[in-house]
């Protein structure tokens, strides 16, 4: 399945629009990962553990969106938007949401 942030896929005209599709994943941050991230923040550098969690959540949200598109008979999703949001009283959860338009090309 083709997934694109653009509204067109070059050389592949849209034959039919199937509808808006979404995928959402909410992940919690655990204390050990928070501790290592705090240490990384103090000494500088990137927080590899958080980056891994973000990447996994994004991939899962996209997979969920693609499954929804497939169920509608689509073979592509165009105009994809990816959003990140911090949730919870203490910001202890992260939501990754993706949305796009399911189409047949």
UniProtKB/TrEMBL annotation:
InterPro entries: UPF0145_dom_sf, UPF0145_YbjQ-like
Family of this protein: Belongs to the UPF0145 family.
HAMAP family: UPF0145
UniProt name for this protein: UPF0145 protein D6858_01300
